[in-house]
Each structure stands twice: as C-alpha cells, then as structure tokens.
Amino acid sequence: MSVLVLAEHDHKSIKPVTLNVIAAARKIDSDVHLLVAGNDCGGVIEEAGKIHGIAKVLTCDAPEYQKRLAENMAPLIVALADGYSHILAPASTFGKNVMPRAAALLDIQQISDIIAVEDADTFTRPVYAGNAIATVKSSDTKKIITVRGTAFDPVNAEGGAATVESIEAKGDSGLSKFVKQELSESDRPELTAAKIVVSGGRGVGSEDNFVLIEALADKLGAAIGASRAAVDAGYVPNDYQVGQTGKVVAPDLYIAVGISGAIQHLAGMKGAKTIVAINKDEEAPIFNVADYGLVADLFEAVPELTEKL
Amino acid sequence: MKVLVPVKRAVDYNVKIRVKSDNSGVELNNVKMSMNPFDEIAIEEAVKLKEAGKITEIIAVTIGPDKAQETLRTAMAVGADRGILVETDAPTDIGGVEPLAVAKTLKAIVEKESPDFIIMGKQSIDDDSNQTGQMLSALLGWSQGTFASELDLGDGVATVTREIDGGLETIEIKLPAVITTDLRLNEPRYASLPNIMKAKKKPLDVMKPEDLEIDFTPRLSVVSVKEPEERKGGGKVADIDELIEKLKNEAKVI
C-alpha cells in the first residue's frame, strides 16, 4: 500500500525537512504521496509536484488549515488514512503536535522520531536522549511515524512529475484559535539543515557577548545554536536550543563555544561529522566528544578564529 | 476549577543509563529514579494557579509500579491535594506503558474525576515519545496547547504561548483542554520538609488497569536496545592556527 507524507511548509515554500521525510518514506515503499494542507498555498503545491519520488500530491486548500492547528489537521489525516499503510511527518514541533492526535483517533501507537527503517513494521529510534537506540516492531495494521530529518539524506527537490489531486476540507473544529506568532528573523541558514553550526553556552556570559558567536557564524555561513543554559539565561531565543528537548542537528561541522556538554546537549549534536569545542575548563565533558578541542578563553579564541578564517 | 496533573516516575535526568548486556533493554537496578522533569513543571504550574486562586483542587495521577507512589508523594509535597496510582508491573525501562494506553487510562480517570483541564509534561525523558498529551486531548475531543512556555487561564478559555521551531506561537484554546509543558514555563520549587511530612497524610488511591477496563498489551515490541555508536573524541589542538589547519586539511569541512 502507499505511504503518505505530511508536508511541512510556511505557505511560501516547502520546508527542507519534508525532503528527508520523503526519503524515509521511500525506504518503506516506492509509492509515496505528499499531503499539502494550507490556505492559498499554490506556490507550495507547485513546488511539491516537482519533488523527486512523489507519485501524487494531495492538496487541501481551506482557511481552517492556514495555521495548521492540530485540532483541524488531525481529522484530515484520519480521513485519508484508509488508503495508506504508513503516514509520516517530520519530528518537528509541527509534526509532534499533530501526529499523536491523529494516531489516537485511529487507535494507533505512534512511533516517534525514527532514525532508521528496518522493514515495513520495524523502526529504530533513540531513547534516553540518544543514550540508547531501540529497535521496535509495531503490531498495528497501520503505522503513524514521525521522522528525525537529519537521519535521512534528502530526496532531490527537482525531477519529479507528480499528479495533483484536490481533497475535501474537514471544517474548523472551533476548539482553538491562532493569536500570533513571533518568529526569529534571520538570514542565516536554518539550524537543522545547516552545514555548519556555531553554538554558544553559558560560558558566553551575556546576550551582548553573543555577537562573538554571530560574527564567527557569519564568517562561516553557519547557523547559530545554543545550549539550554544559554537559552534559560536569556542570551538567545528558545528556538536556538540544541539538545534532547530542543533541536537535533547533524551538520558537517559543529563548533561548541563555552558549552560544558551536558548529556541533554550532546543528544542534540553528537551526530555532527566534526565537532570543535572551545572551553576554558579542560575537564568539560564536551571535550570527550570533540574531534578538536581547544582549551582557551573563548573571548580571545573566538575573535582570533573569526579573523583568521 | 479542578486540574488533573499526570506525572511519571522516570530515570533521574542526571543518570547516565546503561544498556543491558543482552541488548534487551536498559539497566534500571540501583538507578536513581525521580519525577520526570517536565512533570515537575506541570505540578508547579498547577500549584501556582491554585495559589493565585484560579483553581481549587489538584489531583496528581500516575501509572506505574507500586514505587510510583513516591512520585505521587513528591507531587503532593509540592502542593497536589491527592493522588491516584494506576498500578501495573509492566516493565518500565523503555518508557513503560505505551502513550496510547496511558492516554486511554487518563481518559478513564477524567471521566471519573471531571477535571476542568489537564496540565502534563510534554515528554518523559526515558522514551522521549512526546505523544501522551496530544493523544489524551484527541480521545477526549478537547483542545490542546502543547509545549507551553506561558499559560494564561481565562473564563472558559486559556491563552497558551507555545515553543515552536521558528520561535513562539500564541493560541487561544477552549476549556476543557490538555496543556503540555515546555522547559521555560516556570522554575519548579523544592518541597519543604514540613510539606513532605504533610504529604504523607494526603489521600492516595490505588487502582488496577482492570478497574478501568484498559488493555495495556503493548503495540510495539522491543527487538533490541543498543548503545549508540561511540564518538572517538578527545582530540586537542594547541591553538587557533592548528585548529584552522586541521579543519581545512584533515576534516576538510571549511
């Protein structure tokens, strides 16, 4: 049977993580359909139709999907479930909010945050902040899955020629209402998709000092991340947080500055290909996972690095 | 108003867990257990609302082994008025009873207790599923305010600020609702010794899954549990020049 992927988009474009989820879906079955639910999102639908490996794009264009509230999204997924053996979404805050609601309505035990597809029933996922890797086999007849995007190489955004089918909207639940969004504005690459990430921790010391991290990131064309301690201290907004309960990143290069390396932080970044740690405390656990550790005062080392690159 | 706060006994967040040598699960013998940190935030929020006069009763509920009574006592020491344990001897090393079964159990408790809303942790730090609140909300047909960093309880509605990938989102949800907590909703307090003593006298009901007619048979079977691949870290460089040289010529990442 076919596999359905729930597209994540912002009404302007498809979020890159969707391409990683499609890659995971294709490991289950080659007949992959993509659901684009939104309001007035013609550009996104056009983009969706070009993605490599998508046989069909289902579109549901109605005001109740404008803000993608879980109470409205879940019934739409439930209505489509009959035609699919598996339904996948990214393990982003969007997917995490919507998918368990749909799973419960379908009486299915969701499988969260998978990092590998073993077979159509068996999947691998991290538990305990990635300190153990569990392989689980589902006995549900249908699977609802969220996917850790960084664990799968994305499919090509071009080269496909999907058919497009419009589906019926399910109406507004009336349970919840969007009020506002305050999104971080940035020209830097998106944290979970960036090739290079520069992260700051409590050692950076203040919101003002984060300009050092920004300067280095901009020199490298990198995204900026942070430890929970830096976010809790108010140096940067919450969406910068890398870790067990924040974002999971797997860039080619991760530079940890003034980060001690609590296991909750390591859970979010130890999949990076190369890790650099700059910290004045040579006992900091971050050095145990770093390929290149530099024991130094970050206030001297970071400007020097930025200058010499 | 009455609030239900589900809590869970989980491995303490400071413990570095070990995978069992036969790859069947995670070693929990002699491991420190605590209340799941997100649930501490949920209890704290409920207690703050009670102190502000917005709610009158806090019921803590947990599903787990007999020892999970300790978790309920912790909740009561912080300010929950009473506790309910749904006792099961299901193995707990990979998260215990599955989120869907937990959600069904909680729904049955909701039907008995008729709370006005529910506050609970967004995920437990053992199996990291992040499902139960959303599932419970679905089964009840209620609204959901997940990953809350701010909660404002109004008349028949709640305004919830949510931590989302790009920043923050504010929604208005109709009560009754399920609200799940994120890290920055509040700073949980420590229980004082007198309150710990007082909590021992608060009512604690124990039920069995059969009493609620809930089937705990797992849908997911654990095939294997393995250690993650070890990173070969520990390399050091002497200065910035050496770092740049290594990144360029050895790692080839810049």
Unreliable residue runs of chain B: none
Number of helical segments with 4 or more residues of chain A: 9
SSE order of chain B: EEEHEHEHEHEEEEHEEH
Overall mean confidence score, pLDDT of chain A: 96
**Helix vs. strand class of chain A:** alpha/beta
Global morphology of chain A? globular
Strand residue percentage of chain A: 25-35%
Kindly provide the radius of gyration of chain A, computed on alpha-carbon positions and rounded to a whole number of angstroms.
21 Å
**Largest Cβ-defined interface:** A-B, 90 and 82 residues
Low-confidence parts of chain A, pLDDT < 50 over ≥5 residues? none
Which percent band covers the strand fraction of chain B?
25-35%
Radius of gyration of chain B: 21 Å
Give a description of the structure:
The complex is a heterodimer of chains A (309) and B (254). With 309 residues, chain A is α/β, with parallel strands linked by helices. Chain A is 26% helix and 28% strand. Chain A contains 9 helices and 16 strands. Chain A has helices spanning 17-26, 42-50, 70-80, 93-105, 210-220, 228-232, 263-269, 286-289, 298-308; strands at 2-6, 32-38, 56-61, 84-90, 111-114, 116-119, 122-127, 132-138, 143-147, 163-166, 176-183, 196-200, 223-226, 253-257, 274-279, 292-295. In chain A, the strands form 3 sheets. In chain A, strands 5-9-4-1-2-3-10 form a 7-stranded parallel sheet, sandwiched between helices. Chain A has a 5-stranded parallel sheet with strand order 13-12-14-15-16. The longest helix of chain A has 13 residues, at 93-105. The N and C termini of chain A lie far apart (52 Å). Chain B is α/β, with parallel strands linked by helices. Chain B is 26% helix and 29% strand. In chain B, the strands form 2 sheets. Chain B has a 9-stranded mixed sheet with strand order 9-8-7-10-6-1-4-5-11, with helices on both faces. A two-stranded antiparallel ribbon of chain B has the order 2-3. In chain B, helix 2 (69-78) packs across helix 5 and helix 3 crosses helix 4. The longest helix of chain B is centred in the first third of the chain and has 15 residues, at 37-51. The mean pLDDT of chain B is 96. Classes of the chains: A alpha/beta (309), B alpha/beta (254). At the A-B interface, helix 3, helix 4, strand 5, strand 7 and strand 8 of A face helix 3, helix 4, strand 7, strand 8 and strand 9 of B.
